[in-house]
Design a protein that fits this description.
The chain is an alpha/beta fold. The chain has a single domain, classed as Purple Acid Phosphatase, chain A, domain 2, CATH 3.60.21.70. The strands form three sheets. It has a nine-stranded mixed sheet, covered by helices on one side. Helix 2 runs parallel beside helix 5 and helix 6 runs parallel beside helix 7.
Length: 333
Amino acid sequence: MKIFLLQLLFLTTVLCSCTKKETFVISFASCNNQNIPNKLWSPILSHDPDLFIWGGDIIYSDTENMALMRENYKRMKDDLAYLNFRKKIPVIGTWDDHDYGLNDGGANYLKKDSSQQLFLDFFDVEPDHPRRNQKGIYELYTYVKGGASVNIIVLDTRYFRSDLTKDPTGEKRYIPTHNQDATMLGAPQWKWLEDILTTSDAQFNIIVSSIQFLSHEHGFESWGNMPGEVEKMKKLIVKSKARGIIFLSGDRHIAEISKIDIQGLDYPLVDFTSSGMTHSYDTFSGEPNTYRIGDVVAEKNFGLLTIDVKENTVKMEIRGEDNFLFKELLQKY
């Protein structure tokens, strides 16, 4: 048996078999339209990952009609290729705007509590699990491999998020807000995250954010629309002394790797974006990103992380249809 799963309140601990090797392999991706065939499940399976993480937009269901959203989730869940995939690979994840129910939606979405229950239904979360009663779908998973632990910290960037500021010039969709009270995660989730990072003894702490954390100059959704929240996160990361923090993000229908050095942090902070699975930004012609490493991948793609707990390294790969390797980066921690 590949894994043993133990759920306890907000903590899920998975003990992984170490017979294969002292690596923990994570695959992740986002932006999956349930009405379009997904050709990436087979290439992902070929890597025999220990885990697959949905980065959001599992389905496209911008609606307040919960019966329609339920049907869209069912269509995805019953898809034969995905059904075969999740029989072999454990699956976790977060939501983004289109499976949340409102394009670019935040705290103002009226059906967010009902939508949350349908999201949890999709992942077969037990009726009495604490996530059924908490506000927002954030969760912590801890995996143990090769004598080391890896935290997967799944954020909710929708439920509590304040309104964004539209660009009055129309040049971009959004501009950074000057509202000092604007929040990305909300007070309860910020407190939860602080508790996790400041007490973490994990060798790696993978933070799953549906939207990009580092790239922000494009003017679409990103943490950069709330500069105060970006600084708050950076300060928390440094203060916590948590090891091996890596952001995984989606949303943009492109893939790229961004990296920044932060004063007080003894390793570079990486934001690895993978998106989309069934449709991508194939007309992409370029956009600024001060922190980008290499080129943008505009073809359909998935992300792969191979964490070597012995060597304390992470190999990050962007792959596409037929398992084509677009890009890779080896990062030492």
